[in-house]
Amino acid sequence: MLDFLKKVFSNEKTSRTQANERLRVVLTHDRLGASSELMEVLKIEIMEVIARHVEIDGNPEVNLVSEGRHSALDINIPLKGR
Amino acid sequence: MGSKAVENQVIVVTSGKGGVGKTTTVANVATALARNGYKVVVTDLDIGLKKLDLIMGLENRVIYDIVQVIEGECTLKQALVKDKRFPDLYMLPAAQTRNKDDIRPDQVKSLCDELRPEFDYIIIDCPAGIEQGFRNAIAAADQAIVVTNPEVSAVRDADRIIGMLESAQFKDIRLVVNRLRPDMVRSGDMLSIEDLLEHLCIDLLGVVPEDKLVVPSTNKGEPIVLNEKSSAAVAFSNIARRLIGEEVDFPNFTENESVWTKLKSLGRNLLSGKGA
Lengths: 82, 276
Prior knowledge:
The structure holds two protein chains of two kinds.
Chain A: H1 2-9, H2 15-32, H3 36-53, E1 61-67, E2 70-76
Chain B: E1 10-14, H1 22-35, E2 40-44, H2 52-55, H3 66-70, H4 76-79, E3 81-82, E4 89-92, H5 105-115, E5 121-125, H6 132-138, E6 143-148, H7 152-167, E7 173-180, H8 182-186, H9 193-200, E8 203-209, H10 214-220, H11 231-243, H12 259-271
Parallel strand pairs in B: 1-5, 1-6, 2-4, 2-5, 6-7, 7-8
Antiparallel strand pairs in B: 3-4
Helix pairs in contact in B: 1-11, 5-6
């Protein structure tokens, strides 16, 4: 019984879930011809450009989002109010 | 002469990754189409690594090959091998001792142009990979079938191939999922059809379940589609029916069909007066 409850409440992922998560990352990068390193570089450089002109506040996010076979950069950078 | 007005009659079967079941798909879909009364030719473009003759059980009938046709050593008619079972099914063999670079896309194109008026369907068995052999195989095709397995490496390669087909202006690209194990999908240990469609974003043409009868049929050189006891056979003949434009429902491979759901559908059918 304890084992059963453990299984139900633990966050252990099935291998199918892991396959889906890994594929999502790999296919997005394959389609762009970009690596996760490039995404990091992109993120840093975008923030540098923004920071040159305005003050950034909080936690900026730069993410790659994809729908179907198409991808987009989702950039969310909170700015400090004056 | 090909007798039926068929749209997109040249079909390339491709996958990127090797060993997913391209040749098996070609042999079985072609056999099913021929059984439905279509005149079909299968073309093996895996030059240097030919398999189609063996899978179709025609290895003893091969005299000439596609490279000899292209180089003018024999006519196209002389090289075509007639199937054992269906009079309207033919195979154009690959050359075993030559390379993929020995033929060019434009040569495959003019060869297919010569075949078009004679056949309803021309099915091309594409080699694995994304190099010259792939470019040769897609050059003349009107539509593409991408074969994959529910497995990460095969899906990744399929995605790459779909991208390349789209860049080559293919409008009609459909997916065949081969070797699905519904029990493993249910237990969370295999990608499901829905997962694959979400990743690859193309239309589904067929789902072939893993079937122990495939290996013995390959051993004998008899396409599995001729074995009435096989679940893979049903799947391949459904693929052929969808290709000719029939609407064929996809069976639900992964939902648990418990005694309870069977009873429910029995009850529904009885109530609606259709019988069981």
